[in-house]
């Protein structure tokens, strides 16, 4: 009996020691994952603040002075009308052209905040329109996005649209694929998958290759897709092999994290 107890105690000690070793071995990996998440979050916050700064600059230094100048031109027309009415028509024509330019600037600002196709076509329709001329054969399948499913969070819609736009742009520019499959489905989360049968790629191109610069731009696009997904608390996985096509798969939760309440330490 004592021998059995001793053997069991020895096995338990060995198991405990192995568990401790495994835990210690996992600590560096956990630290790396934590650091990667922190850096990704910092990049997202930095990108958001940069976008806000750009928008403030466009409004304050671009659109604001333009509107003030238009107001001054209207005053000039008002003062000119009683004494020199013949000069009013050219002034009004010039003013109309400047107003048209200003409307275009406002439209560009609005488009930068939210793609108009989302409001005009909905997410499924916008993605279908983008994919229509992508390659010879396009198969788009949509599920769970009917009128009775409820509206998607605006940030999730924009993230899915941007990921799809970047993935389909890569198919057009790089894949040389004759077939692309787009799956868009909603259940507890929004799922987006874009798969092509093209040439694929390697994330580690040979140095000195003539395609290095093009591949570097593509890797930047892949990083952007991952960050758009991370910004709404989701994930985006890109898998590809030379000659085996590429799959972009995103999962976007339907509740968006509040980064303002939980700022990085």
From TrEMBL:
Q: Which residues form the Signal transduction histidine kinase subgroup 3 dimerisation and phosphoacceptor domain?
A: 51-118
Question: Which top-rank group of organisms is this from?
Answer: Bacteria
Q: Which UniProt keywords apply?
A: Kinase, Transferase, Two-component regulatory system
Mind telling me what this protein is named? Nitrogen regulation protein B
Q: Work out whether the entry's keyword set contains Protein transport.
A: no
InterPro entries documented for this protein: HATPase_C_sf (IPR036890), HATPase_dom (IPR003594), Sensor_HK_TwoCompSys (IPR050482), Sig_transdc_His_kin_sub3_dim/P (IPR011712)
Q: Give yes or no: UniProt keyword Kinase.
A: yes
**Histidine kinase/HSP90-like ATPase domain: from which residue to which, for each copy?**
157-255
Q: What organism, scientifically named, is this protein from?
A: Actinomadura keratinilytica
Q: Which Gene3D superfamilies match?
A: 1.20.5.1930, Histidine kinase-like ATPase, C-terminal domain
């Amino acid at each position: 009996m004592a021998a059995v107890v001793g053997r069991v105690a020895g096995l338990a000690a060995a198991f405990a020691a192995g568990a401790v070793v495994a835990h210690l071995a996992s600590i560096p990996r956990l630290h790396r994952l934590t650091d990667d998440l922190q850096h990704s979050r910092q990049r997202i916050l930095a990108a958001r603040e940069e976008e806000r700064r750009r928008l403030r600059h466009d409004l304050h230094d671009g659109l604001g002075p333009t509107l003030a100048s238009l107001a001054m031109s209207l005053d000039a027309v008002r003062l000119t009308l009683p004494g020199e009415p013949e000069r009013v028509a050219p002034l009004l024509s010039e003013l109309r052209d400047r107003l048209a330019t200003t409307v275009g600037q406002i439209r560009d600002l609005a488009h930068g905040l939210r793609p108009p196709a989302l409001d005009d076509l909905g997410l499924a329709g916008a993605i279908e329109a983008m994919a229509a001329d992508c390659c010879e054969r396009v198969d788009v399948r949509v599920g769970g996005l009917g009128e009775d499913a409820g509206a998607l969070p605006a940030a999730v819609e924009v993230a899915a649209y941007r990921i799809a736009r970047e993935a389909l742009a890569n198919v057009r520019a790089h894949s040389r694929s004759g077939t692309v499959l787009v799956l868009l489905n909603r259940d507890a989360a929004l799922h987006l998958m874009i798969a092509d049968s093209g040439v694929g790629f390697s994330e580690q191109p040979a140095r000195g290759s003539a395609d290095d610069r093009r591949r570097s731009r593509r890797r930047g696009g892949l990083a952007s897709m991952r960050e758009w997904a991370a910004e709404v608390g989701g994930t985006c996985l890109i898998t590809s092999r030379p000659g085996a096509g590429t799959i972009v798969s995103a999962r976007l939760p339907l509740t968006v994290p509040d980064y303002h309440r939980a700022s990085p330490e």
